[in-house]
């Protein structure tokens, strides 16, 4: 439930509820329990801490997110759950990638892959491969980036959703497409020849997204705006931009706000065009509100 709220409305809106549950579990762990019950409580703590970390990270509260991620990793290890420990480590890696520390992120991703070897479902493996690809893209290693993307595709093709734990259910074909598309966009900012491929992936993500995943859909659409601007398809960029803005106001996501600011800055190159001017006028108060 908490994860669904977070993805629909953005981090922060329900974090107090998660933190409250986390405090209750921590209190229970201070009591004596049979080993099986204690292990289950530790597993619950790990999952609640990871959810709180994601919510804090999405609100731009990096230090808070890191503390919850560390708690999630520690609790998952004590619960003897290497699969979820790998997920928590991958969350820290994602945070590092946003902070432009790809080398550190890659080390954590490799650690997660090694620690959880043989204990992950194919879906979770695919997710880790996309994080690996992300790091390679940031490091300017296109061949390694391609290989990691290919591994992610193969793993997801081999997945069996019925075998997946609930915490990886978000990672589907739309998430794969959106993640790879976003990473190709990163590269396209340096080399516009990648823009067409990025657009193909992002378009697939937009088409396949669950409508309840508002934040992810908004990020997809914002990425598409930027891709179309890189391609010089200004009218299409503006059309998608207006669609994205319908949802931006309904989220409390720092990531969405930062993405909006990036797109707004990119549109500054085309201010003489009427369609762009109209889009920027709609964006301006939202950008100012989150500055």
Automatic annotation (TrEMBL):
Listed InterPro entries: TPR-like_helical_dom_sf
Protein name: Transcriptional regulator
Domain of life: Bacteria
Originating species: Nocardia donostiensis
